[in-house]
Amino acid sequence: MCPEILTAPISTTLRPAVTFLLREVHVTGENLPGVLRRRPRLLTKCVDKHLRPTLYFLQSSIGIEDVSKCAALLSCSVETKFIPRLDYFQRIGFSRRDAKVMFRRFPSLFCYSIEENLEPKFNYFVVEMGREMMELNVFPQYFSFSLEKRIKPRYMMCVEKGVCLSLPVMLKSHESRFRLRLDVCCTSSMPLFDRINVIAAEWTEQF
């Protein structure tokens, strides 16, 4: 994934990067191997020129308090990766503040391609689903689901049943649970006690 590690100087590159992740990002020793396996390029980045400025951006500009949970983002470029995605959400109608809230709630948004992921999913959300943009502000994880394998099929099933489910309920559930919820909404044959249990489970998953 990152062959440059084999030739990177230990004392001036590898060791400073590891020290930075442990002391300033507060990645635990237990979690460090997992972070580096996921994004080994972190080890090749200059602390002063890249890693620390990116950390400050995520903390001060976006408002992410615990960057250790998304430490892999530190290998990304603020100018070519983060800013263009913030600008994209502003172009499609979100305020800068709301866009930052979305990225704070779901930092992985920074990793998604605008052309291949964000744009087609947003267009489907607005044009085909006709839903309110505020739903995306509350549930930006929408963009993490496959458009063809999860979003479209489940939305069409809801349309066929004449049911409108919240985005988390529609997308997060396993297939069997999703179908059960559709049935609960479409039939009154299920005993009241069972319907209450299903609805309670739905609310528990959301919160």
Number of strands: 0
What structural category do the secondary elements indicate?
mainly alpha
Determine the fraction of residues in helical runs and give it as a percent range.
Answer: 55-70%
Work out the helix count: 11
Termini separation? 37 Å
Query: What Rg do the Cα atoms give?
Result: 21 Å
Query: What is the helix/strand order?
Result: HHHHHHHHHHH
- Average pLDDT number: 90
Low-confidence stretches: 188-203
Shape: elongated
Largest sheet: none
Q: How much of the residues is beta strand, in percent? A: under 5%
What does this structure look like?
With 207 residues, the chain is mostly helical. It contains eleven helices and no strands. The protein has a domain at 1-76. Helices cover 62% and strands 0% of the residues. Helix 4 (78-91) packs across helix 5. It is elongated and about 65 Å long. 21% of the residues are buried.
Question: Brief overview, please?
Answer:
This protein is an all-alpha fold.
Structure characteristics:
207 residues; mainly alpha; elongated
What's the helix and strand layout?
Layout: H1 10-23, H2 32-38, H3 47-62, H4 78-91, H5 96-105, H6 114-128, H7 134-138, H8 147-161, H9 167-172, H10 175-186, H11 192-206
Helix pairs in contact: 4-5
